[in-house]
């Protein structure tokens, strides 16, 4: 991936709520900095033809036209916000159906290389128990997905942190993180976490060799990113759970931070039983999260 080519086509998914406003800010900023085309999609859902009254469903008046009209007005207002802030290359998409499916369909049609979406403001517990449209988009997207949440000051971030376990997914995530950091004019922290030894004093030489190997690999990866993207990269190697280490560094300075992580493409059952670093971070981070899927 060449940094000059990312992002070229952005897809902003909006529902007009608070975190969608944050997503709009991020999309406008990235589109302006990169000179990228911006597409805006809003998906409305037709109300069911039956409403339960007691134990008997009752036929209700079809309100699809009213819902569609309200959805069209919402999309037009979002597009007007975009144009009023200087981004003229904007393309609206009004669709009906399941939001995640339609968002992903548009992303494929326009060949988006980045999807931007709000998290709908759910708390960490609600996201953990219920999931969300944004999470469904993340888990099925073929391109990186930027999920916005937090207050008005979360964008633009002052630093980017990215997890690195030296996998193919992590390498791609690190390159995308470096490209975003260059675009934003901020620094990048490359975070490598390794399991905390149960008995660190039993074989100190083994631990020392492992730590040295990880530090050398992280330093080499950092140097490659500096050379390719001309950004400041700080390698960090630390013991602990990967998600917890990454979250700790993202919150450490109390400044706006973008968290970037690669996704391994776990199935739904694996995510439910085992979880993944990307899923844990997506559900618990207080900062914007950029999830980069497995290269395809």
Strand/helix succession: EHEEEHEHEHHEEHEHEHEHHE
Which class of the largest domain in CATH terms? Alpha Beta
Stated plainly, the CATH topology of the largest domain is called Rossmann fold
Unreliable stretches, pLDDT < 50, 5 or more residues?
A: 122-131, 265-275
Q: Tell me the Rg in angstroms.
A: 21 Å
Can you give keywords for this protein?
23% strand, alpha/beta, two-stranded antiparallel sheet, Rossmann fold, 10 helices, elongated, ten-stranded mixed β-sheet, single chain, 296 residues, 2 domains
Describe the structure.
It is a single chain. It is elongated, with a radius of gyration of 21 Å. Helix 3 (99-110) packs across helix 5 and helix 8 packs parallel to helix 10 (277-284). Strand 1, helix 1 (18-34) and strand 2 form a beta-alpha-beta unit. It folds into two domains: 1-48 and 63-153, HUPs (Rossmann fold); 156-296, HUPs (Rossmann fold, 3-Layer(aba) Sandwich). The model is unreliable at 122-131 and 265-275 (pLDDT under 50). The protein is built from ten helices and twelve strands. The protein is an alpha/beta fold and 296 residues long.
List the helices and strands and how they pair.
Elements: E1 9-13, H1 18-34, E2 37-44, E3 50-53, E4 56-59, H2 64-84, E5 90-96, H3 99-110, E6 114-118, H4 124-130, H5 133-140, E7 145-148, E8 159-163, H6 168-184, E9 187-194, H7 204-229, E10 233-239, H8 242-251, E11 257-262, H9 268-273, H10 277-284, E12 289-292
Parallel strand pairs: 1-2, 1-6, 2-5, 6-7, 8-9, 8-11, 9-10, 11-12
Antiparallel strand pairs: 3-4, 7-12
Organism: Thermobaculum terrenum (strain ATCC BAA-798 / CCMEE 7001 / YNP1)
Protein name: UspA domain protein
Family: Belongs to the universal stress protein A family.
């Amino acid at each position: 991936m060449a940094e000059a080519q990312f992002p070229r086509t952005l897809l902003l998914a909006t529902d007009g709520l608070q975190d969608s406003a944050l997503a709009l800010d991020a999309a406008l900023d990235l589109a302006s900095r990169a000179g990228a085309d911006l597409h805006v999609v809003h998906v409305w859902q037709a109300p069911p033809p039956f409403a339960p009254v007691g134990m008997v469903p009752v036929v209700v008046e079809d309100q699809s036209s009213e819902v569609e009209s309200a959805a069209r007005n919402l999309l037009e207002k979002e597009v007007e916000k975009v144009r009023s802030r200087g981004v003229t290359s904007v393309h609206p998409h009004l669709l009906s159906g399941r939001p995640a499916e339609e968002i992903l369909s548009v992303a494929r049609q326009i060949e988006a290389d980045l999807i931007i979406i709000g998290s709908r403001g759910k708390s960490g517990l609600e996201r953990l128990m219920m999931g969300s449209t944004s999470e469904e988009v993340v888990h099925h997207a073929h391109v990186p997905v930027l999920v916005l949440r937090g207050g008005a000051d979360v964008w633009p971030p002052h630093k980017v942190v990215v997890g690195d376990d030296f996998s193919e997914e992590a390498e791609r995530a690190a390159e995308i993180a470096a490209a975003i950091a260059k675009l934003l004019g901020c620094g990048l922290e490359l975070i490598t976490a390794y399991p905390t030894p149960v008995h660190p004093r039993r074989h100190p030489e083994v631990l020392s060799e492992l730590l040295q190997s990880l530090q050398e690999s992280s330093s080499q990866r950092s140097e490659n990113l500096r050379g390719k993207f001309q950004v400041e990269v700080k390698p960090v190697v630390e013991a602990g759970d990967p998600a917890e280490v990454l979250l700790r560094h993202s919150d450490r300075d109390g400044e706006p931070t973008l968290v970037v992580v690669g996704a391994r493409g776990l199935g739904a059952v694996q995510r439910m039983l085992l979880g993944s670093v990307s899923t844990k971070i997506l559900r618990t981070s207080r900062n914007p999260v950029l999830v980069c899927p497995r290269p395809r």
